[in-house]
Design brief:
- Helix content is 44%, strand content 11%.
- By secondary structure, the protein is α+β, with helices and mostly antiparallel strands.
- A two-stranded antiparallel ribbon has the order 1-2.
- Helix 1 crosses helix 2.
Protein backbone atom coordinates (compact mmCIF):
# COMPACT_ATOMS: atom_id res chain seq x y z
CA UNK A 1 0.00 0.00 0.00
CA UNK A 2 1.25 3.47 -0.85
CA UNK A 3 -0.32 6.88 -0.27
CA UNK A 4 0.53 9.89 -2.41
CA UNK A 5 -0.62 13.47 -1.78
CA UNK A 6 -1.63 15.25 -4.96
CA UNK A 7 -1.21 19.01 -5.59
CA UNK A 8 -5.02 19.29 -5.83
CA UNK A 9 -5.34 18.14 -2.22
CA UNK A 10 -6.59 14.70 -3.19
CA UNK A 11 -4.85 11.56 -1.97
CA UNK A 12 -4.01 8.60 -4.18
CA UNK A 13 -3.95 5.16 -2.63
CA UNK A 14 -2.09 2.38 -4.43
CA UNK A 15 -3.13 -1.04 -3.17
CA UNK A 16 -1.67 -4.31 -4.38
CA UNK A 17 -3.87 -7.31 -3.58
CA UNK A 18 -3.43 -11.03 -4.01
CA UNK A 19 -4.49 -12.51 -7.26
CA UNK A 20 -6.91 -15.33 -7.85
CA UNK A 21 -6.01 -18.81 -6.65
CA UNK A 22 -4.22 -17.70 -3.49
CA UNK A 23 -2.42 -20.62 -1.92
CA UNK A 24 -4.18 -22.11 1.07
CA UNK A 25 -7.24 -19.85 0.89
CA UNK A 26 -10.89 -20.58 0.11
CA UNK A 27 -11.99 -19.72 -3.42
CA UNK A 28 -14.53 -17.16 -2.17
CA UNK A 29 -11.69 -15.28 -0.42
CA UNK A 30 -10.09 -14.37 -3.76
CA UNK A 31 -13.36 -13.14 -5.25
CA UNK A 32 -14.18 -11.02 -2.20
CA UNK A 33 -10.76 -9.35 -2.21
CA UNK A 34 -11.09 -8.64 -5.93
CA UNK A 35 -14.66 -7.37 -5.56
CA UNK A 36 -13.60 -5.02 -2.75
CA UNK A 37 -10.71 -3.68 -4.81
CA UNK A 38 -12.95 -3.21 -7.84
CA UNK A 39 -15.67 -1.41 -5.88
CA UNK A 40 -13.32 0.97 -4.11
CA UNK A 41 -11.07 1.78 -7.06
CA UNK A 42 -11.49 4.43 -9.69
CA UNK A 43 -8.89 2.57 -11.78
CA UNK A 44 -8.24 -1.16 -11.60
CA UNK A 45 -5.24 -2.86 -13.21
CA UNK A 46 -5.65 -6.60 -13.77
CA UNK A 47 -2.13 -7.91 -14.20
CA UNK A 48 -1.13 -11.42 -15.23
CA UNK A 49 2.23 -13.03 -15.87
CA UNK A 50 0.78 -14.87 -18.81
CA UNK A 51 -1.70 -14.37 -21.62
CA UNK A 52 -5.31 -13.93 -20.49
CA UNK A 53 -7.22 -17.19 -20.90
CA UNK A 54 -10.93 -17.97 -20.93
CA UNK A 55 -10.72 -19.18 -17.31
CA UNK A 56 -9.38 -15.74 -16.30
CA UNK A 57 -12.33 -14.06 -18.01
CA UNK A 58 -14.72 -16.39 -16.17
CA UNK A 59 -13.10 -15.47 -12.84
CA UNK A 60 -13.44 -11.77 -13.67
CA UNK A 61 -17.07 -12.33 -14.62
CA UNK A 62 -17.78 -14.09 -11.34
CA UNK A 63 -16.03 -11.37 -9.35
CA UNK A 64 -18.10 -8.75 -11.19
CA UNK A 65 -21.30 -10.59 -10.31
CA UNK A 66 -20.18 -10.78 -6.70
CA UNK A 67 -19.37 -7.08 -6.69
CA UNK A 68 -22.87 -6.20 -7.94
CA UNK A 69 -24.32 -8.03 -4.93
CA UNK A 70 -22.34 -5.72 -2.64
CA UNK A 71 -23.36 -2.64 -4.61
Amino acid sequence: MQLRDMPSGAVQLFLDTEGFDATGMAVVYDERIFAFAALTASVLVYNLVETIKEADIEKLSFATQLATEFW
